[in-house]
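Box 4.2: Ligand-aware structure prediction
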Amino acid sequence: MDLDKLKTTDGLDLKAKRVIVRADLNVPVKDGNVTDATRLERLVPGLQDLAKRGARVIVISHFGRPKGGPDPQFSLKPVADKLGELLAHPVVFAGVCVGEPTERMVAALLPGQIAVLENLRFHKGEEKNDPEFAKALAKLGDIFVNDAFSAAHRAHASTEAIARLLPAYAGPLMMEEIDALVRVLEKPERPTAAVIGGAKVSSKIAVLTNLAAKVDMLIIGGAMANTFFLAEGVGIGKSLAEPDHMHTALEIMHAAKQRHCEVILPHDVVVAAKLEGGARSRVVPALETPADQMILDVGPKTIAHYAGVIGRCKTLLWNGPLGAFEVAPFGQGTFALAREAAALTTAGKLVSVAGGGDTVAALNAAGVTDRFTYVSTAGGAFLEWLEGSTLPGIAALTRAQS
Ligand code: 3PG
Ligand code: MG
């Protein structure tokens, strides 16, 4: 991806222009209420900027995974209402995202008005990246802005095909996400460390392999560390692990060694007989996990060691928890290291970027999200970037006309 080719709408005259904004309104909703509005909050400044510049703004998005037809359970209406609340201005909602009535509704928007269209995935053409569906969407606007980094790993009509049909730009949130990733991975201040946690080595093979070639220190936590222990012949009792991936762990360690990247595993661990809130737990050396116990968190020596490692680094990338943080007391390792990273960041000593999957929930639980340099709103797209993959939604913007 030639990121230098990305263009923004800065300096463009947008007065009365119909601007289609691909946003990611895929937020958690329960009983018709948005339960985490982070993605919406991050979109608001960009939408307000377009409105202030006199654009007629048409927001498009997917929501959940409906089966290619209308399904009230996946309607974007409650999300549109919440977005209107955050904008302090009600948005116009179109119950179908393409077709003549929607075209008329969009044409009737006043400069500065914002519309949200119903879930793109109610149409089979969206996920098929169908050029005809993209054409129907493109008819609604004069220019296209993609502000959905978190959907950029999908080659769908609203992220890929549409960028071939209209002058296409990267939105401010898209740029923010890309800049943060470039800052930690592509042009970092060294030394750099990556904390990679989570349950499975198998879901992060490409991430670990790619990072081993990019960072100086790879700190492994979570149940995936257990597979590394197994590969080294260390007993792990009843712990969760992937014996089928012992060879993968060895390959990753080998690749890291060749690249002079140090792979760092826990020294001591917190064990219990089962994963249960308030379970009796104790700390043991990582080499001495009893046969009837399972590893559920990293121990205090490990936390101190990891803290020392990131203290010597200038740049930190974080993806995944170090233990079973959702169940007390097994979040202590994750929370303590997250607080350390936040303190170093606040002191101006560390650039810290986190994202992907459970990571944001873990940092929220640690209460440090706003003290990291940047916390991504993306799950899969963040991980695919860490894998070194081309994200089709971004690649399409680098090729687009303006
Ligand atoms: C996400 O929540 O990760 C994005 O909105 C993409 O959603 P998807 O995984 O359903 O494509
Ligand atoms: Mg996803």
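In the box above, the bound molecule is 3-phosphoglyceric acid. The longest strand covers residues 18-22.
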